[in-house]
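Intended use. Records such as the D-hydantoinase entry shown here are meant for training and evaluating sequence-to-structure methods. They are not intended to support clinical decisions.
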Amino acid sequence: QEFDLAIRGGTVVTAADTMRAEIGIRDGRIVSVAERVGPAARSIDAGGLLVLPGGIDSHVHIAQASGPDVVMADDFASATRAAAAGGNTCVMPFALQPRGRSLREAVTAYRALAEGQCHVDVAIHMIVSDPNPAVLGQELPALVAEGYTSFKVFMTYDDLVLNDRQILDVFDLARRLGARAMVHAEGYDAIRYMTERLERAGTKAPYGHALSRPEVVEREAAHRAIAHAELVDLPIVIVHVSGREAMEQVAWARARGLKIHAETCPQYLTLTAEDLKGLGDDGMEGARYVCSPPPRDAESQAAIWRGIETGVFEVVSSDHCPFRYADAKGKRNPRAKESFRWIPNGIPGIETRLPILFSEGVSTGRISLNRFVALTATNHARLYGLYPRKGSIGPGFDADLTLWDPNRRETIRQERLHHGADYTPWEGFTVTGWPVMTILRGRVIAEEGRITGEPDWGRVIDRAVPGAGT
Ligand code: URP
Ligand code: ZN
Ligand code: ZN
Ligand code: ZN
């Protein structure tokens, strides 16, 4: 047999082209894409389906230490099962350096958690919370050389926030190393000021979270990050841009010729701050929608769509950050009822990212199929040094594929999902377009919502630096 596997009868979609073609796969890689490919040990009939590059989700949180009372709801096994069922073949979670501790140790321990537990491939980013001389002088350069070529910095959160000088220092190092820096742009002092003001006025409920982080807080931090990036001459990624104001900063920077990349997420296209107002039985219903930055309003949703259509946004990630609603309601984290500030920030979305963006973007005619592929796979690979191994369909790429039914109507239900959270923010949300089969390096890892792969088929992979000046 010429091939181990052939995919026949489907419509192959890349960021550039849409074509009727067959795909020949050998040893886990794509060998041939042609009108007809030769005999194969196994053939899969993709008639009536789209054949897409497997989804790459370059912003997820898995088994990340989250504080004394709070446990993240996913380990690597559950998060990557959910990823596979949702049409993804690669996810990028974060190894977090606790302040005062070694970044190297954090990465080593985190990688050990992942090894042998992954249904999809995993590439690890870092979170730098303490850029001390050992981190800047030795650890970070060595880790980047070993293939951990990207890291995130935070402009808020007590345990993570960097001051402006620290941001400038890590940006400067990233430029010298060719590493990719991601920025969480929300202003620490402004959030603390707003939180204390709201608490003094008696605001406790989840909606206070949205009030404490208005768009101006994100806009100010985005502008500051962009200014620092300009000073240092470093292209950065502003992650989880939530609304019109921060997006305008990115567009302004681009117009000045700065290389600022931007990411947004399905929650900023489909949820609003109004969702945080839900009370339910015990006043905590809105905790299901608490993420940072918070969802905004209909006008911001429309602005984010324009940003997707016009290319301001290059990637749509889930920012999957799963907590259990039962914990938020007080079982494990009783302080959550005393103030919104103790509700863990983050919502689950690793399994629903692709259907929501496809349905709201492609099925409504807002974006093309090719743009969908760019936003969900190709640009993630390019931005983070996975290209040309992953992110497209062509000879030499890993055989990471998602067979997609563009016409399938489905309703998102918690009971069908594979993540470890006990709810989905999109309960009852209907979509048109659904992943039917996910293939990782030539093996079927999920089919019709069933997990068919083993947790040791996914690999922890190293990456190249993204390339100078990009
Ligand atoms: O609320 C969120 N997004 N939590 C996850 C951590 C982060 O800032 O991305
Ligand atoms: Zn963030
Ligand atoms: Zn870019
Ligand atoms: Zn995040």
